[in-house]
Amino acid sequence: MTEFVIMGILPNVAEDLHVSIASAGQLITSYALGVAIGAPILAILTYRLPQKQLLCLLMILFIIGNGVAAIAPNYNVLMGARLFTALAHGTFFGVGSVIAASLVQPGRRAAAVSIMMAGLTVANIIGVPIGTFIGQHLGWRASFGAVVVMGVLSLAGILLLVPVIKAEETSSLTRQLRALLQPKLLLVLLTGAFGCASLFSVFTYITPLLEDITGFSENAVALTLVLFGIGVTTGNIVGGRLADWKLMPSMLVIFAFLAAVLAFFAYSIHIPLLAVITIFIWGAGAFGVFPGLQVRIMTLAKDAPALASTSNHSALNLGNAFGAFFGGFIITHVGLSSLPWFGALLSFLGLVSAAAVYIWDKKDVAR
Prior knowledge:
Elements: H1 2-8, H2 10-17, H3 21-45, H4 51-70, H5 75-102, H6 109-116, H7 118-138, H8 140-161, H9 173-180, H10 183-203, H11 206-214, H12 218-245, H13 247-268, H14 272-286, H15 290-300, H16 305-333, H17 339-366
Helix pairs in contact: 1-3, 1-7, 2-3, 3-5, 3-16, 4-5, 4-8, 5-6, 5-16, 6-12, 6-15, 7-8, 7-12, 10-15, 10-16, 10-17, 12-13, 12-14, 12-15, 13-14, 13-17, 15-16
Main location: membrane
Transmembrane segments: 28-47, 54-72, 84-104, 111-134, 140-165, 185-207, 219-238, 250-267, 273-293, 314-335, 341-360
Protein name: MFS transporter
C-alpha cells in the first residue's frame, strides 16, 4: 500500500510541501530506487536467515519508515523516509514469492505467486482509495499513519499465519551470483522493467490526469482508483493461471494488449465514461505479466531462487523509477496528455524484449 498510496494524494503532498507535481512524483521515483538498491543488497546480507524471521525483520523496517514519513517536516525528510521504507520492499516480496511457490505443486507456482502478490492488488482496491480519501479529508500524513497501522497488522499476520519453512541447503553466494547473471535471466529482468516503467509512467500521475484532463472531482478519482484496483486483481489472478498454462505466449499477448490499451487511453482520457472503462481494462492487463515473470526467473535461477526473485523486484522498481522520472519529464517538456503514448511505447519495448526471450527459449529447445 505504501508504494501506491502517494499517487492518490500527490497534489496534496505537493501543495503542503510547496513543491511541483513533477517534484512530488520523484517521491515515487525515490521509493522505486530504494527497492532497486535495497533488494539485492539485503538479499545478499540476509540469505542465511530463516525466511519467516527475515519477513518479520523487513516488516519492522517498513513500519519505522512509514512512521517517519507521517511526521516528516519537509520534502527532504519525506524523501529519506520513502527511501528507508523501500529498502525492505523488494526483499519482502522476493522471499514471499519463494515461500508461496514452495507450498504448492510445480504446475501451480504462478497461481501461488499471484495469490501472494494479491496483497498488492488489494492495496489498489481498498488501500489506495481509502488512503486517498483519508489524505483528502484528514491530510496526507494521516494516510501514512494508516499505512503504519496496516504494517503492524501485517506483522501480526506473519507471526501467526506464515508457516516455518524447513531450511534447505543453501548454495554458496558465488554460485547464486553466477546463476543471477545468466544473460537470458537478465533479459527477463529487462522485460519486467519495461512493464513497470510503462505502468508507472502513467499511473504515477493518474490523479492530475483525471482531474485536469478528464475533469473528475477528487471523489471521482478515488472511485476510479477502486475500479483500477479491481481490474488489477482480476488481471493478477488470470495472469497467474495463464502463466501456469502457457507462460511466454501469454506474456507476449499481455504486452501487446497493454500497448494497444495505453495508445487508446490517449484518446479516451478526454471522454469520462471511456476513460473509466479504459482504466479498468488497463488495470487488468498491467499486473497480468508479473506472476509469470516471477516464476520464469525462479525457474532460470534454480540455485538462487530467493536472490533472483528479489532481484526481479529490484528490476521492476528500476522500471518504476524510470517511468515516474521520465513521466515527469514528459509532463514538463511535452505535456500531461502525452503520457499514455509514452506508456504505450514502453509496453511495446516490453513486447520486443519478451519476444526475444521466447525466441531464445525455442532455440534452446531445438538444440
